[in-house]
Design a protein that fits this description.
The chain has about 550 residues and is an alpha+beta fold. It contains 11 helices and 27 strands.
Length: about 550
Amino acid sequence: MGHAVLHGMIAVQQGLLAAARTVLALVPAGFALAACSATPDGPAPAEQVGTSEGAILSSDVLTRANEWVAVKLKYCQSANGARDYDAACSTYCSRQSNPQWDPYRSDCSGFVSWAWGLPSPGRVTGQFAPFVSDITKAIPAIDLQPGDAVNNSEHIMLFKEWVTKGSVATFLEEPGCSSATPYAHALTSNVTISGNSIHVAWNGMTFTAIHYGQLEAAPALKGTLDTASCDDVTGWAQNPDKAASSISVTLTFDAALGKAGAASRVLPADVARKDLCGPLGSCNHGFATPMPLGLQDGKAHTLYAYATDPSGSQLLAQAPKKLTCAVPAIPAGVKRWVTDPTSLAAWKLDATLDVLSLPQASVDAVAKGPDLPAKPRAVIADDGSSPAVWLVDGATRRHVVDDASLAAWHLTAVKTKVATINALAQGPDLPAAPFTIIGSGGGSVYVMDVAPTSPAGTSPGDVGGAGGNGGPAAPGGNGEPGGGDPTAGNGSSAPGSGSSGCAIGARGGPADASWLALLGVTALVRRRRADATIHGAHRS
């Protein structure tokens, strides 16, 4: 009976469109007009194509659609919890609840309406082209682009992509309660096209290719989210129009980009990867970053990744990914209080991504150290004599062991007079990355640090006293702070040097078991090392 009503509507001449809309308005609420579309709440507005709703990128359309696909959202011809008049479905719609999805029908046209950002509960098939052309229009099937749709009187599907243009395509659909897959899913099928028509072998149906007028093509960006593990996140991204240039990647967690609740992080996609050189024409498009500590909480999280440049953003292939990471053990040492949110921001620590919530008792059990400085201060020799980077921590300087640690702490080194650097006593190496915690009861945030009895580290002594990155040790090097490791006097770097601009291989002076006490006793520790000066480094 529902089919008869719709076929009667289709028979109305286009010149009588207003009359057809009147017929739609008179159909009883809940009465099925088509195999997968319930009755509209009222007649469609008489507007020009693409003027009824806000513009939306094709990448956002697919992101919204994939939210339903990811959870296999159950088919209903009504809003969640409402009466469902489709005889093949349950009397009432009962599906996964989501405040944004709940007002929409999860039938084929409700699915497309949600993806395109149209008002809930969504339009029906008879309110899209070729039947109504206020916001959509028929297009040649060969011109279908991601985010477009194919429609007929009984069914509508989103077009995802061409596998082989003109002959094989992937679609997204809500197929119906009587389907073998009665939920949102993707399908790939052979197709046959002719003009505006496209025949889909998967379901044996012929459709009209249609375009939503407010749909905008996504930027010409591409890439892949290769891995999302509890150790790291890796992948690549590129703008093919500027193939040799690097762009950025935006990671969002637990919500798509721009949506409420999305915690985000932007990083450069500029890592050289040999496997990209051939396929992309250049190599510097990789990215890798540790999984944020704050998400290693034993709970399920969803990671989205987007190629990003001034033209916009594009969801990467193989994104989003879901993962659950076990809670890591608290490292040995002391906890240092981050005194207020301003200080947390100064250290560039994100309250969601970088702070791990732990049982209050576990946090309370950790011994307290001195407060963390209100803001970080990283320094490097102003005369270029040493590439070592130091964090100034009260009356001490702490060696930043390598570039990865410098990035993990979000530090930027400021050129500083070498005399000023050497006047600070050398403390333990800075931990490789911040481990920031908060108790489940809320309140204080702490950064874990090494214990007060920790030695001064295997990093450089006084700036200028070591043969950094293979340079010779200063004259008179005898292993004391400033003199460098005697084994480095022949120009070789001591263990741990590597090629990093932050790491100098020569070992520092003897352990200072009371380095934490020095943090508040600056006047007692401002002294020179007599064995070497700043000018000793890199001499011929």
